[in-house]
Amino acid sequence: MEILRAEHLTRVYGTGDSQVTAVRDVDLSVEKGEFVAIVGSSGSGKSTLLHMLGGVDRPTSGRVLIEKEDIYRLDADRLAIFRRRQVGLIYQFYNLIPVLNVEENITLPCELDGRAPDRELLRELCRTLGLEGRLCHLPNELSGGQQQRAAIGRALINRPAILLADEPTGNLDTRTSDEIMGLLRLSNQRYRQTIVMITHNLEIAKTADRVITMEDGRLTGDRRGAQQL
Hints:
The chain is of the alpha/beta class. The protein has helices at 46-53, 76-86, 102-112, 119-129, 144-156, 174-190, 202-205, and strands at residues 2-13, 20-31, 35-39, 61-66, 69-70, 87-90, 162-166, 195-199, 210-215, 218-224.
């Protein structure tokens, strides 16, 4: 079942001589439960594409459908609610709230929605992520890997339709990167979580089921299976 579709997606910045086209007429379809990696060099447009897929950066033209909802037809308030409930976002630099502890950071999307978190899911996530003994710690009391684990928990607490990861291991050492990728794969397998991840690292991309390459704002390849890299 298709869960994400992008049609003729284009993003242009600036005007006149300073105009830059970051993403050019991209079509993309992702099925429920897929783990997709988008690879490309710096400046290829992959981060811009991911942010448009997640409702963070509005396209110049084209449309994005998540579970058949044309997200850019929503007004700003409805889009913010949809994004909070249906899109999980993981960033390279974690983006945890420094004055909130681990549990508060993880449950923040629920609090913003004005509802209590699913305590059973919270316990399961914290156990899976190895954060059971860190729930009362502030972000500055955690290692980089622990902060990223908390960010993953926050992204999953609302059981989103899709999880978008922007260079999730870019700020981590090799061992911790392997652990984080293992957790993403686990969430894909255990919760059948749909994941779209961008990375410049081909070794990291090999953990995905499907690898899409991007150059100069265009998708230039789409392969299934790490053995094809």
